[in-house]
Recover the amino acids of this structure.
């Protein structure tokens, strides 16, 4: 049996500072910018799993065309969007085994989603190296091309699994398939110091700020305060998502989840 490790977990646009128990493996780093197209039905269901069930039917679904970037496969009416993040620009590498279901409300769709759309388009064009993608996004953030959310909002990430980087720090390039349903509140430019918490501690609340690390100043426009679901809610999501988990594992073995996150008393 594989050994489990307690790790700090990032999620979507990546990562989460929170303890999880997960298996690492099947890491697949590639210099090839092209990604494999996921089966449409699988990608759609995986993307929608980020949202609570009552929001799925009316949400907009983005799917990825590896040759062009994201496109709207289904136009919704409730302001929420969902998609599978396949490239995390902060790590300055192209992998073919990162897949994180993410959703945003109307504000996040307006301010944060464009970064994912642009990164996917740049990767699909084969004209940019991973480092050039990162440098381009950083430069755009610094000159104000991308704007931070202008009001409070939420990103649901309630999928039964995600394939993500296991650290909030670019440079740690380990990836794992983990189960940690949660949701995130927008917290632009917030720091642990302003929360009165030492960075890297186990104390809640948890702050997700990989863009701040990439910018090098400890602050970033696309930061979140994360709230993991409690154990009962998580088990319910995993049970209801068994069919989806089986389809994912049959599609790519590295989607197999051998560990479950720890509970933090929420």
């Amino acid at each position: 049996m594989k050994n489990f490790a307690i790790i700090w977990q990032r999620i979507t646009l990546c990562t989460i500072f929170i303890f999880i128990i997960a298996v690492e493996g099947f890491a697949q780093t590639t210099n090839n910018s092209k990604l494999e197209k996921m089966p449409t039905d699988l990608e759609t269901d995986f993307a929608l799993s980020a949202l609570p069930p009552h929001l799925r039917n009316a949400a907009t679904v983005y799917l990825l065309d590896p040759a062009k970037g994201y496109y709207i496969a289904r136009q919704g009416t409730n302001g929420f969007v969902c998609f599978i993040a396949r490239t995390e620009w902060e790590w300055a590498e192209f992998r073919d085994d990162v897949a994180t279901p993410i959703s945003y409300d109307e504000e996040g769709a307006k301010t944060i989603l464009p970064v994912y759309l642009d990164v996917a388009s740049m990767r699909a064009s084969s004209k940019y190296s991973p480092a050039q993608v990162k440098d381009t996004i950083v430069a755009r953030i610094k000159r104000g091309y991308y704007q931070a959310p202008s009001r409070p909002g939420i990103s649901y990430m309630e999928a039964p699994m995600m394939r993500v980087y296991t650290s909030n720090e670019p440079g740690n390039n380990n990836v794992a398939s983990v189960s940690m349903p949660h949701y995130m509140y927008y917290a632009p430019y917030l720091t642990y110091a302003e929360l009165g918490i030492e960075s890297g501690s186990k104390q809640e609340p948890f702050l997700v700020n990989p863009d701040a690390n990439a910018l090098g100043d400890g602050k970033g426009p696309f930061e979140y305060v994360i709230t993991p679901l409690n154990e009962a809610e998580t088990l319910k999501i995993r049970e209801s998502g068994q069919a989806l988990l089986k389809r994912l594992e049959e599609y790519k073995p590295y989607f197999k989840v051998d560990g479950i996150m720890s509970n933090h008393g929420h």
About this structure: Confidence is low (pLDDT under 50) at residues 1-30, 261-266.
